[in-house]
Design brief:
The complex is a heterodimer of chains A (about 110) and B (about 120). By secondary structure, chain A is mainly beta. Chain A has strands at about 5, 10-15, 20-25, 30-40, 45-50, 55-60, 60-65, 70-75, 85-95, 100, 105-110. In chain A, the strands form two sheets. In chain A, strands 2, 4, 5, 9, 10 and 11 form a six-stranded mixed β-sheet that branches. Chain A has a five-stranded antiparallel β-sheet with strand order 1-3-8-7-6, with no helix packed on it. With about 120 residues, chain B is mostly beta strands. In chain B, strands 2, 4, 5, 6, 9, 10 and 11 form a seven-stranded mixed β-sheet that branches. A four-stranded antiparallel β-sheet of chain B has the order 1-3-8-7, with no helix packed on it. Chain B is globular. In chain B, strand 4 and strand 5 form a beta hairpin. The chains are: A mainly beta (about 110), B mainly beta (about 120). The interface of A and B includes residues 46, 95 and 102 of A.
């Protein structure tokens, strides 16, 4: 119930394309869903986050879509650039769990 | 640069040994979190301290312990090391305690290799 399942494990997208990473959760007590971006040799950094009272949040080329009834959320990267090549983690937090639960990560490669 | 510092950057040791990882949070942050990142387990939350007190515990083994000192830096102690403990260990910090909307800022990590 504390798991967050993330797919795909790896993704290759051409420059200018749309990158889509999906996550699903079971625990309905989760109420905060951040996405983290991690470059090689660095720690994860918060990219964008959403709460379940909205279905979509957009920041620049990054958009989170949230489907509360399906218990799924996804990250869309529009006009993907080689600089977006990194590992992306979805996560979830609930007051009951008192901790961030991370997905397994997606290694994204943007080909020039 | 997140403002969170971790030392050492790399650590190579043998099975059965004990090591200490150190973390200094961002200035003003009172919470420190420890995470383990391995290839097969992903990012796993270990433990959180807030202003010197343990606040939340995750999948932390009994061989592992942590503490947060009065100057707010934290240490993660790993003992009786096994091959499977080889991983990246991240420290993160945030301003607050239980508020999930306080962003966690991650340090660069310590890569532990147990031979």
């Amino acid at each position: 119930q504390q798991q967050v399942k993330q797919s795909p494990q790896s993704l290759i997208v051409q420059k200018g394309g749309i990158s889509i990473i999906n996550c699903a959760y079971e625990n309905t007590a989760f109420d905060y869903f951040p996405w983290y971006q991690q470059f090689p040799g660095k720690g994860p950094a918060l990219l964008i986050a959403i709460r379940p009272d909205v279905s979509e949040k957009k920041e620049g080329r990054f958009t989170i879509s949230f489907n509360k009834s399906a218990k799924q959320f996804s990250l869309h990267i529009m006009d993907s650039q080689p600089g977006d090549s990194a590992t992306y983690f979805c996560a979830a937090f609930g007051q009951g769990a008192q901790k961030l639960v991370f997905g397994q990560g997606t290694r994204l490669t943007i080909n020039p | 640069d997140s403002g969170v510092t971790q030392t050492p950057k790399h650590l190579i040791t043998a099975t059965g040994q004990r090591v200490t990882l150190r973390c200094s949070p961002r200035s003003g942050d009172l919470s420190v979190y420890w995470y383990q990142q391995s290839l097969d387990q992903g990012l796993q939350f270990l433990i959180q301290y807030y202003n010197g007190e343990e606040r939340a515990k995750g999948n932390i083994l009994e061989r592992f312990s942590a503490q947060q000192f009065p100057d707010l830096h934290s240490e993660l102690n790993l003992s009786s090391l096994e091959l499977g403990d080889s991983a990246l260990y991240f420290c993160a910090s945030s301003v607050g305690d239980r508020d999930p909307y306080n962003e966690q800022f991650f340090g660069p990590g310590t890569r532990l290799t147990v031979l």
